[in-house]
Design a protein that fits this description.
Elements: H1 12-22, H2 26-40, H3 54-60, E1 75-77, H4 78-88, H5 90-93, H6 128-138, H7 149-162, E2 171-173, H8 232-236, H9 239-243, H10 248-263, H11 276-283, H12 287-296, E3 298-299, E4 304-305, H13 316-328
Antiparallel strand pairs: 1-2, 3-4
């Protein structure tokens, strides 16, 4: 389809000058605005949106490349990062990077060729600079992007130290971080294989109406489908949650899996299980409200509660059981 080229415009000085002599009506003002906009349009401009300002671009341009491009000024050592790591990271990742429960293990150099390989920073992560990028963007889990640049350098230094990649007093900074050689730096490559094996059918193809799905991967039992299913009982009446008999065993299991990380030590303002005064005020809001906050997520004065504690595979009834369990074990259940 041919697209007509925009009409040529006269030089801005001539156009603006000639319009200015007769300006005074809305038509004159509109003509002037169109003329100015036309002068600013680059080739191929279709009239959608506005050019991003340098400030807007800077707000999004925060990625760090494997070669270190994008790293900000700053520095830190493992010695400086140890206490910060223990405060902000060890609850999930373990004091020595061994991982707590199902949270990721950070330290270890076991080969990835074993029967059940376990990925760590030491045996899997290819570039030290992108580790800085990830920590800067996404950590700590409960309070991402709360660390200063120097703190990120220090935490990354400690994680690298746990993997015996740098010395305890080695200072990481903008200039040398990308030069740290990771054991798996050559382990990633672009997969040359095609996305699919079969060729695209171009003629005498099967009628789509005759195609039947006979099996899908969810039958393996490894794909969480609970959150895709419509649970009529949950949607019927919020009050039903309060009156239902909640299984204590389920509540404890879900608490250990998804809630204990924050509600055990009190991370990010989470009320500690067993702290009756802290839970009493929440109990007064009603179980329905607490369950809704836990299921949907909630921003309170003390901190942020992620939806389902970040474990989105949990069913609403499982979350309700965990909330009831925490109330009962904090002396705050009705």
């Amino acid at each position: 389809m041919a697209v007509a080229a925009p009409p040529e415009t006269t030089p801005s000085a001539t156009r603006i000058g000639s319009t200015a002599r007769n300006i005074g009506t809305l038509d004159d003002i509109e003509e002037l605005s169109v003329a100015i906009a036309a002068e600013r349009r680059p080739s191929g401009y279709f009239g959608y949106g506005d050019p991003a300002t340098p400030e807007q671009i800077a707000g999004w341009d925060i990625d760090v490349r494997p070669d270190g491009k994008g790293l900000p000024p700053g520095s830190g050592t493992a010695e400086q990062g140890e206490a910060l790591y223990e405060e902000k990271c060890s609850t999930c990742h373990g004091v020595f990077g061994e991982g707590e429960g199902r949270w990721p293990k950070l330290a270890g150099d076991e080969p990835l060729t074993g029967e059940r390989p376990e990925k760590t920073v030491g045996n899997y992560w290819p570039y030290a600079s992108t580790l800085w990028d990830y920590v800067h963007r996404a950590m700590p889990f409960y309070e991402p992007q709360s660390l200063s640049d120097d703190e990120v350098y220090s935490v990354v230094a400690y994680v690298l130290y746990l993997n015996e990649l740098i010395e305890y007093d080695f200072e990481l900074n903008q200039s040398n971080l990308a030069a740290v050689e990771m054991p798996n730096r050559d382990g990633f490559f672009v997969d040359p294989r095609p996305d699919v094996v079969n060729a695209v059918c171009m003629e005498d193809c099967k009628n789509p109406d005759d195609i039947r799905i006979t099996w899908d991967s969810t039958e393996l039992g490894v794909t969480p489908t609970q959150h895709f299913q419509d649970d009529v009982a949950d949607a019927a009446a919020p009050a039903a949650v309060a009156s239902a008999t909640l299984d204590d065993a389920v509540g404890q299991r879900v608490y250990d899996q998804a809630c204990k990380t924050c509600h055990g030590p009190g991370l990010a303002g989470a009320p500690v299980v067993g702290d009756a005064p802290a839970w009493a005020a929440r109990r007064d809001q009603g179980l329905d409200v607490l369950v809704r906050h836990a299921v949907e997520g909630f921003q309170g004065e003390a901190g942020y509660m992620p939806a389902k504690g970040g474990q989105v595979q949990l069913g609403d009834d499982e979350v309700a059981a965990a909330v009831s369990y925490m109330l009962q074990n904090s002396g705050a259940a009705d």
